[in-house]
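User: I'm writing a tutorial on reading structure tokens. Could you give me a worked example: one chain, its sequence, then its tokens, then a sentence or two explaining what the tokens reveal?
Assistant: Sure. Here is the example chain.
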Amino acid sequence: TVEERMAEAIRECNELHEAEIDRIQEEIDTNLRALKEQHDDALMAEISAKTAAQMRIDELLLEREEQEARLSGNLRAREEELLRELEDTKEEHRKHIEAYEEEQKKASAEREAEWRTRLDSEIEERSKLLDQIRALQTEIDVKGTECKQESEEEVVPDKDDQMREESGDPHSHP
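And here are its predicted structure tokens:
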């Protein structure tokens, strides 16, 4: 009968549709799984890349910290070295200043000794000159006294000199 054939044809059509739907559903599921796997793979790759990047960042941070620690240690060591050098330089300068002051004291003492020697020499020379002046003064005084006595003697004429003058014979000797 036609109805049975139609029902059979509808059933076959339905089965074919269901088979086609199942096949399409299967294809969709396969494609979804493939997409999910691709997505998962991409996600895993991204996660892996991000993890690797984070690990590299951590590595770089650690290297940086180590470098900073080394640099800090180097800076402290250099600072200590510079402080030691500064102290050594201060000590050297202090010694140079002390040596300079000592040299100045010696030079001053030597200059003072030279001046004393010069002054003593000058004093001695002046004392000699003063003694010579005194001796000359004494000599002058003696000569002056002699001259005074001579002039006094000349003022009081001698009797013999008077007689000679009176006789008019200047060349006659007594």
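What the tokens reveal: The mean pLDDT is 87. Residues 138 and 144 are 9 Å apart (CA to CA).
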